[in-house]
Amino acid sequence: xxxxxxxxxxxxxxxxxxxxxxxxxxxISSPDSQSNLSDYQVLLVGLLLISILGMAALGLYTLRxxxxxxxxxxxxxxxxxxxxxxxxxxxxxxxxxVSPPVMQNPDKLxxxxxxxxxxxxxxxxxxxxxxxxxxxxxxxxxxxxxxxxLNDLVDSVVERYNGLVxxxxxxxxxxxxxxxxxxxxxxxxxxxxxxxxSPENPDIKVYTYDQDGNYVIAVRxxxxxxxxxxxxxxxxxxxxxxxxxSVKGFGLGLSYVQQIVNAHQWQLELDSEVGKxxxxxxxxxxxxxKPATAATT
Length: 297
Prior knowledge:
CATH architecture of the largest domain: 2-Layer Sandwich
Distance between the termini: 57 Å
Strand order of the largest sheet: 2-4-5-7-6
CATH class of the largest domain: Alpha Beta
Shape: globular
Structural class: alpha+beta
CATH topology of the largest domain: Heat Shock Protein 90
Helix content: 40-55%
Order of helices and strands: HHHHHEHEEHEEHEE
Number of domains: 2
Number of strands: 7
Largest sheet: 5 strands, mixed
């Protein structure tokens, strides 16, 4: 389904706005810029409003002939709910930036700048996730395949979770031709999904190994698990386990994972048991280097 022209316009404004927020904030933490903090606050509010419009326009992605299904309504509700936290955090941090105690304290100044950057990146991640799904649906998804050391890529993604996720890379033949951008997003979606459906003390591991000419990435958690009757549905767009609103999300992450796996012609497997957790496995063909043969005379 094609997005309306108005949606693409607002989406573009939203992406540009978030990137501008991050770019402009890079100079706020220097002492010389403290006298202009009120100007930055005005700028933040304006860009934030544009960002919200951009994200709201993503709701048009769910429209089909001006009619709504229950899944689509759930998606729009979850999208709005998911954005409330970063929007509120950005507003609070922007207000704190112009308070005299913060303006006179470089450490606090850096703290609130960091909050705004992180929340802006969080909003941008949601935008990119929905846009990737839209591209796949429109058959406009293009893969940029590169020979990639996958153990290094897995380690770099896991590091972003500050110890919440542990990596055990045992694969020896760890080269493969992949689209790095989409594989990174696949790993993020699987890890975020594991975190959302795990208890307060999650035990989440990502491990790699070699199997029958494939490089296998497995993401295992100790979460709620998936009932047998739902295993065939979780890769559908907008579907959420248990149909519960207590877990944040749009119901798009696993659909995106499967689309990227299919586009690469990889294999995706799932083992899960209610109350004991889940394990997702992605099998990627190993890169087979073919040495050049000498010309015969």
